[in-house]
Specification:
It is found in: Membrane. InterPro entries: UNC-50 (IPR007881). The protein is an all-alpha fold and 262 residues long. It is built from 11 helices and no strands. The chain is globular, with a radius of gyration of 20 Å.
């Protein structure tokens, strides 16, 4: 049984990336994009609280969506402050990686664009589209019961993907950068292999768990525990990699993957 918190359901039509329901045939710009450049209206304090909570009490982040649903009649929060803040952190990280490993101005610019628009925003959009399609397509009977009036919003899927990316960012863009000299000093060293592979395992587990919490918080979704299945797969691959002595950082060329196209 899903550990859902019982809340009153409000059945409403799907909100398209946080857009308010339109009347007639008029087309309205989604509120997320309307607020994209309205910095005074962005709640950066809330974004910082969410980032902190994702590390120490991630369930609190998604409990707050109930209050937003009650007042705004949408699960999605059309506030790009979290996206902006994490993008800013990625720019700083790209600067550090660039100065250390690609010390040229052009390469640093390309690396910054790569980190923000491909790794972060691009992957979040792809993941959001895939999960939104799963919720409303062939797998609808698995996660959403037939006849359910509430629909999985693409904007909410984007919110979940963004928040799941934050702990992955800390693992693979910050901690890996700090530990990289140790992880690449001796490719045949078991400690280096263990630390590197465990770092990636922890990042993927955290990403999967935050994703699960995001969708498990929606009372109209069912069987969300299936979203935790990849953790078992990651754990098995982690054990096999240690037995085989295969290091993700060195042999998997994961670091070179960060610089793809640079």
């Amino acid at each position: 049984m899903n550990p859902h918190i019982s809340v009153p359901r409000q059945h409403a039509g799907p909100a398209n990336f946080g857009a308010t329901p339109s009347r007639g045939s008029s087309v309205r710009m989604p509120r997320f994009f309307k607020r994209l450049f309205k910095f005074p209206q962005m709640d950066f304090e809330m974004a910082i609280w969410e980032m902190t909570s994702l590390l120490i009490a991630p369930k609190k982040v998604f409990k707050s969506i109930y209050y937003h649903k009650q007042t705004k009649n949408t699960w999605h929060r059309p506030d790009p402050s979290f996206t902006y803040l994490l993008s800013f952190f990625l720019l700083l990280t790209a600067l550090a990686w660039g100065l250390a490993y690609t010390p040229s101005f052009g390469a640093i610019i390309r690396l910054s664009l790569l980190f923000v628009f491909l790794h972060f925003i691009g992957s979040s959009l792809v993941a959001s589209g895939a999960r939104g399609a799963a919720g409303g397509g062939a797998a609808q009977g698995l996660f959403v019961q037939p006849g359910e009036k509430d629909q999985l919003e693409f904007g909410y899927c984007f919110d979940v993907s963004n928040r799941a990316f934050f702990p992955l960012y800390l693992h693979l863009y910050v901690v890996q950068f700090i530990l990289l000299p140790l992880l690449t000093r001796n490719p045949s060293n078991f400690l280096a292999t263990f630390l590197g592979n465990t770092l990636y395992l922890s990042a993927l587990i955290y990403y999967t768990y935050i994703t699960f919490l995001g969708y498990n918080a929606l009372p109209f979704l069912h069987n969300t525990e299936l979203l935790l299945v990849p953790i078992l797969v990651f754990a098995v691959l982690w054990v096999i990699s240690l037995i085989a002595g295969w290091g993700v950082v060195m042999h998997g060329r994961s670091v070179e993957g960060l610089f793809w196209g640079v």
